[in-house]
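Morning F.,

Quick status update on the modeling queue. The single chain you submitted on Monday has been processed. Sequence for confirmation:
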Amino acid sequence: MRSPRASALPVLAALLAATAGCADTEGLRSQGDLGVVHAPQTLWKDIHPEPPGPGQAPGRAAVVPGLDVVPGGDMRGVDALAVVRADLTSATRQDGGTGRLVDPRAVQRLALCTEEAGGGPDCPVRPGVLHDLTGNGKDELITALDLDGRVSELRVYTVQDDGRIARILARRGVLEGVEVAAEHLAVREPTSNPKYISVSDYVWDPGAGLMNLSDLTLDDCPSSTAPAARCQASGP
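Structure tokens below.
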């Protein structure tokens, strides 16, 4: 009959191996002092932002005023510059120059656009891209207005069932890259760490009638192949 001590030795050895966390052929090794675990500390817990005002509530598409109804429900053939001008002018009027809906520089920058095709060589509005983001077989309009050499206003528009043009995504940021695939739109932006770039994935939400953020990840910055101006930190 085996002694109680002998039968307990394998159990004790298994427990030590499970709790040690690191072992090799020479035996168990300690990982050292892992420090003290602290509970998160809430900063400014008594200060909260005001609720969004009219036109600022998230999760709602914004109809662009002053534009003609579009028959057929497709943005193809619509003047992209006219849409951006109407949208930014209306948004500026709504936010009173606070910059919450649109950067105050946007309308000033739009003044550089002329009546030439595409707005002329100094127009800061990027050429519109047509892509079906809603999955209904009809194209949306994707464009952006460059506020300076770094920051831009990304805008996406669709035609609603009633023929009115609505903005379904507005995003201000440093557009390192914008990619589309099926009903996804991904925005790549620099972070404060030059080793990483953030990727925001927007997907069409038929219930809300707009592009909603579905995923936010970090991706390695390909510094070995990227030009010197790419993947820089997001600071000034």
